[in-house]
Design a protein that fits this description.
- 2 copies of one chain form a homodimer.
- Chain A has 13 helices and 15 strands.
- With about 450 residues, chain A is of the alpha/beta class.
- In chain A, α8 links the parallel β7 and β8.
- At the A-B interface, α1, β1, α2, α3 and β4 of A face α1, β1, α2, α3 and β4 of B.
Chain lengths: ~450, ~450
Amino acid sequence: MATRSTIMDTNSYRDEFVDLLPPQEKELIQRRSQLLGSAYRLFYRKPVHLVRGRGQYLWDAEGNQYLDVYNNVASVGHAHPVVVEAVSRQLRQLNTHTRYLHEAILDYSERILATMPAAIDTAMYMCTGSEANDLAVRVAQRYTGGQGVIVTREAYHGTSALTSGLSPALGAGQEMLPTARTVAAPDPYRSGSAELAQQFAATIQAQIDDLAEEGVKFAAFLADSIFSSDGVFPNHPGMLAAAIDVVHRNGGVFIADEVQPGFARTGEAFWGFARHNLVPDLVTTGKPMGNGMPISALFAKKDVLAAFGDHIPYFNTFGGNPVSIAAAQAVLDVIETERLQEHAQEVGTEFLTALRQVGVAHPSAVGDVRGAGLFIGFELVTDPESKTPDKALALDLLEELRERRVLTSVAGPFGNVLKLRPPLPFAAADISWVCEALDISLTVLGR
Amino acid sequence: MATRSTIMDTNSYRDEFVDLLPPQEKELIQRRSQLLGSAYRLFYRKPVHLVRGRGQYLWDAEGNQYLDVYNNVASVGHAHPVVVEAVSRQLRQLNTHTRYLHEAILDYSERILATMPAAIDTAMYMCTGSEANDLAVRVAQRYTGGQGVIVTREAYHGTSALTSGLSPALGAGQEMLPTARTVAAPDPYRSGSAELAQQFAATIQAQIDDLAEEGVKFAAFLADSIFSSDGVFPNHPGMLAAAIDVVHRNGGVFIADEVQPGFARTGEAFWGFARHNLVPDLVTTGKPMGNGMPISALFAKKDVLAAFGDHIPYFNTFGGNPVSIAAAQAVLDVIETERLQEHAQEVGTEFLTALRQVGVAHPSAVGDVRGAGLFIGFELVTDPESKTPDKALALDLLEELRERRVLTSVAGPFGNVLKLRPPLPFAAADISWVCEALDISLTVLGR
């Protein structure tokens, strides 16, 4: 059976916090609750009202500057001038669809496919990570003839009917697909086992067997290799190879969801799967691909994709349009010219070291600090011996950090892991802002 | 049972046409087939290679100017400077998501909801029409507790797993949902009945009964009120009221898919459903909303939406971001300042009259010309008595029109209806370009 959680509701404004708010924000929230559906959530007990961004910094309506340590959409930096100019230029020229010929989509496809293993040789474009995962699962099901999909226990893969049913992170209100199964993400902090890679592979085999017992043929393992919403588990490079061997031995495909680790963020590699020396069958991307322009993609082995594409036309009106492609090209330009992958590795390593020092100064609260490049999990516990997750502390800490103008949020099944994932220009000079804010906040909170 | 078609493949390049192509286009097509998935389709036997657009005009790589009589995405005109400037300005400022407070999404929601019946009072934002329909169907299913969805026989509602299963236009390769049923779109040309409204309502009741017999509770009727992919049937205003009464009497909801008729296109009203004096329960939008920026929306009665939103968080990373909203606001500005709704009605009426004159000059080929505003169907038949659809003529005609630099495509279960749906700035002066091209092309084709 698939297990469920309610993590999505953790860092959220609720009406009981209304008296914390200044008048302008109170009015905006009242308008929101009147105009927008109740499915919408705001971050923070005291939500932030942003009006401007640049690089890794954001400003609110009163001119306060924030350090963004959370948003991987504006991955090469908020309002990056190279991306802004590329998009504006193409908007003045032409914005149409893929039923007419256009070079830009081909030039981009060649460039991005060159960053992948040669077996991944085909591209398709959509607008959101949800759309990419929705299509990837359908392709996997057509190719394998199976329906069973395995995801991790706290996974989030999208917001469509199909991908919501593969996203236990959405909470108990959202039913999982009957053909879905979950496995716990590989957590070296709590497992402590030297055999974690084999154990993880074995849990996948067990779920494949469970599907088979109920007459469901296995189709795919869909995972983000840094296990972002499970609590950020980069693990050691190569660690996932055994699990993917199990997937392939059972006739399934591996869909690497690169919405989180892709586009140079982990420093060690351009793609999350590449840290593990894997060749996925399907790769999906989203958030950072266009630095905020709605573009996503499915990259695939030609024969896997053909099982779908030879029989069903797929047309995504806005997918792969010249403007979105211009944004995506500019993102690659910036990553190269600003050496952001190397930068993510260098500054990420320095950041990790500094965060571990905060942990040393607050040993009763900080259980583990782990990361790859600029993707770091900072885990809060009630005490380091029991490793009991301290969600209350994590939520209080978020608010304290917000008061010190450091924006982040939480992840993991217990909502106790700070997810530190800044825009890639995040600089060595920003580290002290975060670490001092963490240090003071933990002290203020008596930890 | 749901019936199927293969219309999606009609106006498509196929490899057998390769020798028609100049060298540059041949090379682009070879790169496409190598780099992009086989699910992609190109328009025309001799695809068009576009590099620039402005207003209702497009230019190819050799500098040839085309009249665009097809694309409703760049609805207020290709590269409209007001939209370009609004998007560029906001890109320089901030592009982030709905978990922080921002005025723009609230200002836009107030403005767009003011164009609808008061009962439709809540907005949610996505990136594509597919995402809007996917969510709308899930909301309808939660609200009603049913699963059954009725669509028209040639409907296209999206590309996600759920919406593909509600899109018979995708052809026989795509399975329909077992809980889907189809009805023929109301076709006054072929039915000739004065009782068409009642007959259409009765076919919906029959499908609701058929669902009930198989134990499936009825949830929704999902339709585009101009029946675009069914062959463009505007019908007379008010005609759909009886059908929607049946939907409501059976406890279902009506989802008005406004991706096609919305945003002033029909001239007679800002929304397609408004032509019929209806109050839908859910309204979805897409293509024209941001003039090419990927933005879509679901507008809803608060209580209908609450059945979903009170239980499941919905977060669409790029949905409702300030840049997409800036595009959508600019589109409304342009529609107002350029009086595009009035313009669509005036020039659309004139266009319809001129097209009917073409029909009079070619009575053996043109069976019917019908439309509302700038959404016109031009139906080709083998002879006007039998009304037998002439798909071969329609496809030949498309290519002849392309040679005369008029871009359009076909619709309908038989692929024999030209879908004339230009950007709204389409001017009275453009009418003769289209009509002369049609006249000469039909003559060249011996009709």
